[in-house]
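My current task is to audit a protein record that another person submitted. Alongside the sequence sits a line of tokens, each denoting a local backbone shape. Please read both lines and tell me whether the tokens look consistent with the sequence. Do not assume that whoever made the record got everything right. Thanks in advance; the entry in question is below.
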Amino acid sequence: MALQTANADAGQGGVQLRYRRIVVKAGTNVLTRKTAHLDRSVMESLVAQIADVVEMGAQVVLVTSGAIAAGHEAAPGVVQGKSVAASQMLAAIGQSRLMHAYQELFSRRGIVVAQTLLIARDVDDRVGYLNVRNTLNGLLERGVVPIVNENDVVDTKEINGQRFGDNDTLSAIVANVIDADLLLMLTDTGGLFTADPNRDPTAELIPQVDQIDDAIMSLAEVHTSTATRGGMASKLLAAQHATGIGVAVVFGLGGDPAVVREVACGEFTNGTFFPASGSVVESRKRWLLSGMTKKDAGVVVDDGAVRALREQSSSLLPAGIREVNGRFVRGDVVEVLSVSGSRLAYGIANYDSSEMRKIAGERSDRIMELLGHHNGDEAVHRNNMVVV
């Protein structure tokens, strides 16, 4: 689970992180400053800020746009038009260049990055969701910065149900998948205003929104940019989704050279803050305890595993499993019982029941030998489990 404020590490000058697991979303307008090309100075500033908070102890996922803009920059005369096919080709040309730019910038700070391209169907089913969750959590725990983008090369409007629609939506979904405690959405306006500040000089910044209701949604005008798919409406919908599952949201100014660090430390003075409705832990518990548990399916664990789960917040390893009850598939929510029959936890199984029986009581390094494949060292990962 995301670490809480009280455990945050001190940074320079004794400043502490308020948020430890953070999703930063940077859209095309921010990265290009509304031009046709990526602005390297903006990217350098963004990377430097993320590196600063990572060095303070934060875990950060960067959700970035810019592949199509990078494609335009690299091959301005190769692809013409604004069709879906043209956008796909530009994304194919630009994605590697976008990633290479990030890789070079982060490497200067000694940070390894990992490219993750997603479409909606990757997280729609249980197994896909679990694969994405385990991969991103594993990267974060090893100090790697995942760089996520929607896979525009294969994700089209014509294929129903396979596209997120924009990276605003994607950033909220990623925040949910990794149990983030903050989603920072960088904008070219710097927050939510009473009117469009680009058109109305009297527009005033709204510093905090406690509830995203119809009145707040009405402030979002129809987005008409030809360069991006998002807009204030999509950002508000993403914020509504994120706050509802326990993630705080901030709309901050993408051009501010200190916005990431200030928001991560809870010290920002500009932008719009959307407080979470409850905690990530509460949301996760509600989800795991909401009747999704496979009936009469689960595992019985030994006393050593009971102590590890209760006292050390550890994952459940195959070595601690004594029995496997019922039938379930990877991705099902199962119950974890003690030998005495008391209910200990609920969690998402990393292996099918038949596979779990083969590896029960065995060391994790024998999983590949016993099954012929490896979905992780854990029978149930601690990030996918709630102890009751």
